[in-house]
Amino acid sequence: MPQLWYQDAETARRVVTALGFDPAIHTVTGEEMKDPRDWIVVGQAPAPGTLLKSTMPIEFYVTRRDMPVPSPTTATAHPGRGAG
Questions:
Q1: Is the pLDDT of residue 44 over 90?
Q2: What sign does the CA torsion over 36, 37, 39, 42 have?
């Protein structure tokens, strides 16, 4: 799995689609995402570096560009779910 943190949602979607996957994109705030270029990836599953298998679901967690963004070294892969 490539590292997608801080990429806009549209770029991240294109990267994963090129690998043959259809990602599920979730907004951290629950808002509707109108323009994916206005949203950035702040979490992903599976984690970067994971060997992908054809049956794996791919998920991104995104927030608006104008929102504070956590560091990937201190945040979980699932921002809305907390640790564990």
A1: yes
A2: positive
